[in-house]
Amino acid sequence: MASITLEGLKKTYTGDVQAVKGVDLEVRDGEFVVLVGPSGCGKSTLLRMVAGLETITEGTLKIGDRVVNKLEPAERDIAMVFQNYALYPHMTVYNNLAYGLKNRGFNKDEIEKRVQVAAKMLEIEEFLERKPRKLSGGQRQRVAMGRALVREPAAFLFDEPLSNLDAKLRVQMRVEIKQLQRRLKTTSLYVTHDQLEAMTLGDRLVVLNAGQIEQVGTPMEIYARPASMFVAGFIGSPAMNMLPVDYLNEQGANGLLDNLPDGTDIVGIRPDDMHLAPPSAPHLTVDSTLALFEAAGAESHLYVTLAHSDQPTVIRVSGQPPVAEGETLRFYVTRDALHPFNSTTGKRTGD
Amino acid sequence: MVENRPWANLFAHAVLMVGVALVVFPVYIAIVASTLAPDELMRGTIPLLPGGHGIENYTQMWQSGVSSANSPPAALMLWNSFVMAMAITVGKLFISLLSAFAIVYFRFRFRMFFFWLIFITLMLPVEVRIIPTFQVVADLNMLNSFAGLSIPLIASATATFLFRQFFMTVPEEMLEAARVDGAGPMKFFKDILLPLSVTNIAALFVIMFIYGWNQYLWPLLITTDPDYTTIVMGIQRMTSEENPQWHLVMAAVVMAALPPVLVILFMQRLFVKGLTETEK
Predict the structure, then answer these.
(1) Which position has the higher pLDDT, A1 or B248?
(2) Of B182, B187, B196, the CB nearest to A89
């Protein structure tokens, strides 16, 4: 059990490519922190720097109270789960789990005990004598987790562990990882590009973009108050719609946009905050044409083109409203659903 | 096969049978000849059925050899060949595994330079460098020794290159997982890389063993002591006599052909095992 502290962590590759441009972050003891961002944002590099698989160009990395910048991965007291599992194909599941313990000089009884405990926890006891190739994707994933579990490390590092699984299994494993972490209370750092996975798993999210932290916060904080246009567009699906203030004023804002913070020239509206029926609260209205209707079971996505604008916009409504493609729709937005941004800085202007 | 064309089938089989016969017939003749009495072979037509002198011929070849041709007993020659071939094979595998490991997994200065250096030596067969190598071996007093027979043939660019290609296909995460699991470089090599390379090692073992077993020019150059005569040299000497004793030559030939066959049969199980079991 330990906290992980990153201070001004930078990674520069040869040729002056900056993958990580100074990251400060504290993962508290027992906390589950998810690093999320699009591919190439440096989240994996950051995780690998914590693991000790990439060297640290600049900055300090502490696990507990120990500065571990120069330590080998094995000396950092961490365990990692890889995206492609990286199980040893020639070893049985048992030996896969035991290998790290053997290298650390644990005696046979202790290894046996720990492997059995981990196997029981992950329900892989019956596969212990099999080779990894005889296991399904989900089972391999469990073995990979087991390999991290038996070590009882100070921290777990997950590098997109679910992205090789099919959608159904992914949800199931997601729940299991969460429950496991709750039970063990082991500090965890988890990398994913899937915002849904990030939202559901993390105690706190760290949204990364181009090697820098965009925002840190609990999932709901980030969802409710995205700090920048990037975060607003990245978290939430379908993505937040961005509409220029000038355009909305033309369409009939009812004076709703007059008290926006200074510098606001664009507002973000979540697809579920666009209503097809006028709410009782003061609201602004926009006319649009329905371009595509997408039924997704409990909810529907309406892809509309705004009147006098070619801006693509998505509306999410529950159920299946009686609308037809080509139809003109009027939607209503209340004041508290507006996220004000400045398009030059990309930052939130207040509220 | 979904097709049903009896004539095409028959034709294909006929061609295959002729092919097999072409390959097998000389071997059959060698075996038959090794069981005949000396005079039976001299009568013009070689009989196509085995004679009754097999045990006698093999025993003579095995125990006493052909002294008139300066050819020691086959037991000794086979042993010499076996030691030389094994030394070359094991040495080649050992060195090429380690050098491929170094080239793939370690970042050191001039890494690519060394790789190309090794690669370029692929183009130099033993025969090209035989005179300078002979000089070196002679200066090191290794003439007439197993060391002289095997060491100069051990360096292998081919095996190094093949292992390099194989190591590059092993996923990077395997190394990283091992590092997180606390395995140092040599431990990773021993525990992970070697077991994964079993198929390649078995294949190269066969190739290298046959290469070593069939060496002719090099042993001929550096050994003058009959105690170090290899079987290939011995057969050559026996056939260059004025009146070669063909029944004994053939007995030696059959014995010389056996070890490579045994090596292939033994290693074949490893190929099949390796091919079906390894998954990366």
Answers:
(1) B248
(2) B196
